[in-house]
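Continuing the batch. This is chain 6 of the set; chains 1 through 5 are on the previous pages. Same settings as before, nothing changed between runs. Recording input and output for traceability.
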Amino acid sequence: MVTLAFKKGTGLQAWFIRFWTWSRYSHVEIIIKDKWISANPKDGIDIHDLRPLQDDWMYIPIAVDESKYGDVFDFLEQQKDHRYDWCGIFCSQFFGIRKENPDRWFCSELVTRVLQIFEVEDVIFREACTLSPGDLYNIFK
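Output for chain 6:
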């Protein structure tokens, strides 16, 4: 079992993402076992110990193939020093240009890729860079 964690976010960037994607959520992270994984502008790819769950987040548990945990953590270990993908988020989310950089990630792109490694049917054939936090919420709510 993994959990998707959705946040509304504050500030101009979060408001713009919510407005542009017609969603109440501007950010998504994923909880796997005892680790909290995110892609964010400040830290890039961030993997840290599970923190207490907060009331201002929406949590959705997802059933996954637990035999894939090793593959997922191997992938995340390779990504942990990568930076946030500003170009990818603007090109794909705001301009509809599919622009993937294998060395950079934005939040919903990373979460989608992790779910694809778990072989979650709802996203397995989707292009990770095309999904927003709102899209993921709508798929799994």
